[in-house]
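Q&A log
Question type: sequence-to-structure
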Amino acid sequence: MIRIQNLTLRFGERALFDKISFTITEGEKLAVTGRNGSGKSTLIKVLSGVISPDEGFIEKPKKLTVGYLRQELPEDEGRSVKDEVLASMEEIESLKTTLQECEDLLHKPDLDHDVMIRAVETMSEVQHRLEYLNADKLDGEIEKILTGLGFKPTDLVRPTREFSGGWRMRVELAKLLLAKPDLMLLDEPNNHLDILSIQWLEKYLIAYEGSVLLISHDLMFVNNIAKRIIEVDRGRIYDYVGTYSDFINYKKERREVELNEYKSQQKLIQHKEQLIDKFRAKANKASFAKSLQSELARMDVIDEPDDEQGSIRLRFQPSHPGGRIVVEAHHLSKSYGPLEVLKDLDFVLERGQKLSFIGQNGQGKSTMVKLLSKAIEPTHGHLKYGHEIKIGYFAQEHGEILNPDLTIMETVEYAALPQIRPMIRKILGGLGFSGEDVDKRIKVLSGGEKSRVRLAVLLVQEHNFLILDEPTHHLDIPSKESLKEAIKQYKGTVVIVSHDREFLRDLAERTCFFSNKTIRFFEGDIDYFLEKIEATDLENTFAKQQTTVSVEQNIPQKSESLNTEEKKKLVKRIQVLEKDIESREKKKKDFELKMADPDFYKAPESQKLLSEYNSLKSDIESKTIEWEQLIELAG
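Response status: OK
Response body:
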């Protein structure tokens, strides 16, 4: 279906791809793998036509349709979720126009026979494509896909601008799935999905008739979909037919062969160099030494195979164990204005427990970890912490509090315990920062790289209660395996929010399911949880919770539904919030000016100020959410 031949792409002197060739056949499902920075995303951009290769060619049929899930969001056009997806279906309108043109042509008198045959053939092709796209059931197909990706029925009529970037990426994914291209190119499609939506997408792609080429660090997702693996490694590709798990075994065998070849060649080179040194000064052997030198010059020297990143072991630093009770929740509730997220919760976390937080996005998982980490305060109830509990908290937005002018190495060194500093390069290597990477300044890093720096900081500090909110988002599979092993070996208490089933498997022995403002504990890992609540039951659970939430909130949509007194209170609260947010924003800027000073992080009180800054940011976020909700009520 599509053939890539001798494709070469250079960035400066580095050849990202060096004469690579492979073919994608019709209906094939394959995954591209490789270390971060190896060129996986670039390869997808080349196949989509976004980037042109320096050499080689891509051969494909003229009528082949290629769909690419871009990581950048388009400009908001003010449409509802459903209308935004519907507007992307230009192909259907084009096909209907072609069909009408063919019908008009066939009604012409004295039509040439060959023209008539071509028109009939075109109509047949167009009809087949329209049927494949479910054009006559388009509304139902749109709702099916959007619901599968986690949208509630009431969400479909809401403007896209009301949704976060993650939810808008789901809209872009829905557009691509609805378009049903012959070749679908997916770069981390499950990044913004919860477990239920990932399971739905997985089933959809397995049954998909077209070809799928995907990049994903979710091992289970890749294993279940892809039956062929293409690894990008140092400019070359390795093509393997089989699952990712099979590929890992093959890769171990391949590295062993390469290592033996390298060692054998090194022995040969060493032997020849010894002979050259021995005979160079002897007149009767000088020509022999010279011929050996020529042989060495012509030799194609094999590079030493890299150690697998997964072989680098990450480790969290041990701390004093603290009390048996880590934290107790009593009548814990959290609301953002009229929006109640968690309601009247009571639970106890004990020393050494490892828990995973599971549930659809928006059900309160991240709110709970912010409460546990003291980043935000509860609306009602309280949390009581045990004796000498030291919290280590990882959240995606923490990348913003890193000093932009420091290097990666400096950032981690300043945070590290003295005894850990000699191991920092090894720790950073395990998270994908090798060689000169560690000298990059924070301000030039991507969001994903900043998250990995934050994870490195956590690895060099001391704590006994570890709270991880989506720690694997920007890690490749070997790094995730290293992190998983580090968590397994950690003696403290761990709470993990993750949608990666393979990462959670055999890791967290207790699963906490968030649904309808409350939580339910399962005494087992993710497999146990999914066995207890089958996928169909899970879908019913979410369907019920969506209906319940919309009914229980019972929030009027416009201010006309409120009486005069309620309107006054609403307007007054909005004004108070606006003043609060404005004053806190000013205070936040004052913090940021201090943090811009490179010496800020050397000061003894820097950690305390960072904690205050973090709390201030969370407070602004909470008040902004409440303000948005009240503005919506005011109409």
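Response note: The chain has four domains: 2-246, 247-306, 325-555, 556-635.
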